[in-house]
Amino acid sequence: MLDAIMKRIIGDLEEKRAYKQLMKRVDALPKDYRYAFRKIQHYMYSVGPVGGDLTVFTDLTMFTSLVEWFEASAAEGRQVLDVIGQDVGKFSDEFMRASVFHPDTRREQLNQEIMNRFNKEDH
User: Fold this and answer.
1) What's the CATH number where 69 sits?
2) pTM of the model as a whole
3) 12's torsion region: left (phi>0), alpha (psi -120 to 50) or beta?
């Protein structure tokens, strides 16, 4: 009972740690990518998720995916506007829409991750 009360008052500490680690990764991005990420993140929080599914923001999956994509693109030497395009609002909306997970999608993702893990270990 006390845990539930503390979680309600201060929030989930693991989620906060994960968010802080994610933001350290953002800070390590090149300047243009870092700026774009923060602007896109602000836009997404302001507009809200497509369909009103707030779990998109609480599990950090969407932002983690964006950081991973930005890290890979920066490592390839691509310019941030080549990645997100000129209509950043449209990019953000489409990225949120693609990030909304449904139970079937989560199930497929789980199965794929497990299969990838064990197939890699078998070889």
Assistant:
1) 1.10.1900.10
2) 0.69
3) beta
